[in-house]
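Sequence only, no structure available. Ideas?
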Amino acid sequence: MSAPRQPQPRAGSGASRLPPAAAMALPRGLGLLLLLALGGPGAAITIPPEYGAHELLQPPELREQPPEQLVVFPSDDVVLKCAASGNPPPQYRWTREDEPFVPGSDPGVTTAPGSGTLVINASLAGRLQGRYRCYAANALGTAVSPEARVIAENTPQWPKEKVTPVEVEEGDAVVLPCDPPRAPCPPRSTGSTAASCTSRRTSG
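Reply:
I predicted one. Tokens follow.
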């Protein structure tokens, strides 16, 4: 005589199909305990008055960062700004050409107090031009600045050329050539009523 068949749970009957180990993953009443601990449905989270806002942890967030391109002349220091907020206060580091760059490795390389702003003396700008990046880090993460390209230029000089007078009849159109020196940044040319032409380069 065969053993009687055990009744099988029907679909939609609410019977659990989870294995016993999974059923024990959440102890009974855990949801209720969490609800009571948070003060009930819709309760707001309150911060004790003795817990100051200055104690709230915050990952680094950049407030100042270097430009994508900086063109400097022989008399200009290189100033690459980098400052970030965060708690704990972030620590700063720099890379140059994707390699660690330590301020203080040269006497003319320093950082501004209270920030990661990098200052390179003008006398070193030619040797230390290249690609830079700033990192601000604390225990909660790291903020990374865009890559900044530093280009050291010589003082621009107009090419030597003989300028001859141009004579035209009153009312006729006239074309005056203007060929500024080559530069990594496009020059900005302006004309005056005295028919003079100047070029001024900008640092981007």
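Residues 187 and 201 are 5 Å apart (CA to CA).
Hope that gets you unstuck.
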